């Protein structure tokens, strides 16, 4: 075994035609199970020639729209509908998914801040290492499905980083158009390099993501957007054979910039919002108030927006602590029309 080889082992053969379901097996020795395994469900559907596509959800365990959309698609798809190879992991951070938490209960690891991972690291780091070193070199394009999780709710949004390659930029813009979300969030400025999207670009392929819904639940509307976007994406890249992408309205191309795009809680209390998800707001406009239950004689603290923009995500729980994100804005991408 080389120093870079992952400690995770798949019990499926990625080169075998047909539809396989199995597990990624990660040794995890604990008090109650000395030779235990973490078994992460994985599937591979291969048929003939075509691209290799990685489809993931549950990167954060409390984000349910993507996990449901992926599970439903995996149940329905048959090998004769595939042209190439589709690798599917419905709950990538499986320990977090089983706990219904953003981070893993085993190591408090945030998988989408763990790449490139570590062969001999914590369970979360080892999952990231396997994806970056073993899976992504096989893949030409990936889709990672997210939502706002338990603490946030998003407008339906597709999401991508902005690669240096002009050809890849055009391909990503085409994916945003076909995915069919309300907004297309394009990260043109420097972003965190510890995410799966960053790992996908490091591998030389394309990588695409979405943020749909959240709030620790699933709505019929958000799931419908996720399912349609998933099928349109797979049809557009050519791995879902014989399917014409569903017609969609043009997404509003937007960017998220620096710290002034966010509103954070400066103190502990109950937050009263003065906006709704999707609102267009102005700099200086009231964002809401923090009320102090333990200091009834203290007046509420007013918060304001620091720039113009569209509210693309908002905090769901009313209780806040210093540093909690209240909302995130986006602004129209210059030149997007």
What this model shows, in words?
It is built from 6 helices and 18 strands. With about 325 residues, it is α+β, with helices and mostly antiparallel strands. The protein has 2 domains: about 10-255, Aminopeptidase (3-Layer(aba) Sandwich); about 260-330, OB fold (Dihydrolipoamide Acetyltransferase, E2P). A 5-stranded mixed beta barrel has the order 7-8-10-18-16. It has a 4-stranded antiparallel beta sheet with strand order 15-14-12-17, with no helix packed on it. Strand 7, helix 4 (about 165-180) and strand 8 (about 185) form a beta-alpha-beta unit. It is globular. The mean pLDDT is about 95.
Summarize the helices and strands and which ones pair or pack.
Elements: E1 9-10, E2 18-27, E3 37-47, E4 52-57, H1 64-76, E5 84-89, H2 94-99, H3 123-135, E6 141-146, E7 152-161, H4 166-179, E8 183-187, H5 196-202, E9 206-214, H6 220-237, E10 252-255, E11 262-264, E12 269-273, E13 280-281, E14 286-291, E15 301-304, E16 309-315, E17 319-320, E18 325-332
Parallel strand pairs: 4-5, 4-6, 6-9, 7-8, 8-10
Antiparallel strand pairs: 1-2, 2-3, 3-5, 7-9, 7-16, 10-18, 11-18, 12-14, 12-17, 13-16, 14-15, 16-18
| DSSP, total strands | 18
Low-confidence stretches: none
Gap from first CA to last CA: 53 Å
The level 1 CATH classification of the largest domain is Alpha Beta
What's the structural domain tally? 2
Radius of gyration: 21 Å
Structural class: alpha+beta
CATH T-level fold name of the largest domain? Aminopeptidase
Number of helices: 6
Instruction: Provide the succession of SSEs.
Output: EEEEHEHHEEHEHEHEEEEEEEEE
Biggest pleated-sheet summary: 5 strands, mixed, barrel
Q: Using the 3D structure, state the CATH architecture of the largest domain.
A: 3-Layer(aba) Sandwich
Percentage beta strand: 25-35%
Q: Output the strand order for the largest sheet.
A: 7-8-10-18-16
What sort of overall outline do the alpha carbons produce when their principal axes are compared? globular
CATH superfamily of the largest domain: Zn peptidases
The amount of helix comes to 10-25%
Nearest-integer average pLDDT: 96
């Amino acid at each position: 075994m080389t120093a870079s080889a992952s400690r995770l082992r798949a019990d499926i053969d990625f080169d075998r035609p047909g539809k396989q379901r199995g597990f990624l097996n990660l040794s995890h020795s604990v008090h109650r199970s000395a030779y235990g395994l973490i078994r992460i469900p994985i599937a591979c559907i291969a048929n003939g020639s075509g691209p290799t596509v990685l489809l993931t959800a549950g990167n954060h365990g409390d984000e349910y729209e993507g996990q449901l959309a992926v599970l439903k698609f995996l149940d329905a798809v048959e090998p004769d509908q595939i042209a190439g190879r589709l690798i599917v992991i419905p709950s990538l951070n499986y320990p977090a998914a089983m706990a219904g938490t953003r981070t893993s209960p085993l190591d408090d690891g945030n998988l989408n801040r763990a790449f490139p991972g570590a062969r001999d690291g914590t369970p979360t780091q080892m999952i990231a290492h396997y994806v970056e070193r073993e899976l992504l070199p096989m893949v030409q394009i990936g889709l990672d499905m997210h939502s706002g999780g338990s603490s946030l709710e998003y407008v339906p949004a597709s999401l991508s980083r902005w690669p240096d390659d002009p050809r890849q930029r055009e391909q990503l813009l085409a994916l945003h158009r076909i995915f069919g979300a309300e907004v297309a969030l394009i990260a043109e400025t420097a972003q965190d390099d510890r995410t799966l999207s960053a790992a996908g670009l490091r591998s030389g392929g394309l990588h695409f993501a979405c943020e749909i819904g959240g709030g620790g639940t699933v709505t019929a509307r958000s799931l419908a957007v996720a399912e349609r976007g998933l099928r349109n994406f797979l049809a557009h890249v050519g791995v879902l054979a014989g399917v014409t992408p569903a017609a969609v309205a043009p997404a509003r191309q937007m960017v998220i910039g620096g710290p002034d795009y966010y509103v954070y809680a400066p103190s502990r209390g109950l937050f009263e919002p003065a906006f709704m998800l999707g609102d267009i707001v102005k700099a200086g406009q009231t964002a809401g108030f923090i009320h102090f239950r333990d200091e009834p004689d203290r007046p509420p603290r007013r918060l304001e927006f620091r720039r113009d923009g569209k509210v693309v995500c908002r905090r769901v729980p009313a209780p806040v602590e210093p540093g909690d994100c209240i909302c995130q804005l986006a602004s129209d991408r210059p030149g997007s029309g």
